[in-house]
Design brief:
This protein has about 220 residues and is of the alpha/beta class. It is built from eleven helices and six strands. Helix 3 runs parallel beside helix 4, helix 7 packs across helix 11 and helix 8 packs across helix 10.
């Protein structure tokens, strides 16, 4: 009988108290291991190289390199990259959208209940997008506003996909899991994963969260 390796987590925050609280919170989960900490976004590449985390919990405001820039740098790396959950006090519209466009798999505010943060780490490690309810409302509000250049670019991008890839992308945007998409579209889970991977490659996206944002932006706006 084999035992799955724990989910390896890197904490990135310049507040030692926040890191201590997150470490204590995650220590209670038997399937999660905090493998290290970094106090600034500039330290993230080296920490990721040394510690090979599966998930990075990333603060936004740090002294030298902010969390969004650090996330963007990770997404641009070749080879395996960890999933990034931005965990911050600041959930303005611009911050949320910028973080997701930079390649973050999720965005949580720091007052999110501990059990939800633990579950978010598990979901991110499994490749699922993670958004706290307030952040989800921010994203919905953003993509249901007036038409803008992002909308036009998003629609042009989706036009490059096959019809089936677009269907899968829109289902991802609705928050559906792979099994749910497979059942709705009468596909195997493996086929859903293949369509997602193909769409990401064609569009130059880092993860399914970016695909969800793109599909949201391409949808017709509500009057």
């Amino acid at each position: 009988m084999t035992v799955d390796a724990p989910i390896r987590v890197l904490l990135v925050d310049d507040d030692p108290l926040v890191c201590a609280g997150l470490r204590l919170m995650l220590r209670g989960a038997p399937d999660i291991e905090v493998v290290g900490e970094a106090a600034d976004g500039a330290d993230v590449p080296d920490a990721v190289e040394r510690l090979t985390p599966d998930v990075v919990l990333m603060d936004i405001r740090m002294p030298y390199l902010d969390g969004i820039s650090a996330t963007r740098a990770l997404a641009a790396r070749s080879g395996r990259t960890p999933q990034v959950i931005v965990l911050t006090t600041f959930d303005t519209d611009t911050t949320v959208i910028d973080a997701l466009r930079a390649g973050a798999s999720g965005f949580l505010v720091k007052h999110t209940p501990p059990e939800q943060i633990v579950e978010a780490v598990r979901r991110a490690a499994a490749g699922e997008p993670v958004l706290s309810p307030g952040v989800a409302r921010t994203l919905i509000s953003h993509v249901t506003g007036g038409a803008d250049p992002h909308t036009r670019r998003a629609r042009d991008s989706l036009a490059r996909l096959t019809e089936r890839e677009r269907e899968v992308a829109l289902a991802v945007a609705d928050g559906a899991a792979n099994a749910e998409i497979a059942a709705a579209l009468h596909l195997s889970v493996g086929a859903v994963k293949a369509h997602i991977s193909s769409a990401l490659a064609k569009l130059g996206l880092a993860n399914r969260t970016q695909l969800a944002v793109l599909a949201h932006e391409a949808r017709p706006r509500r009057p």
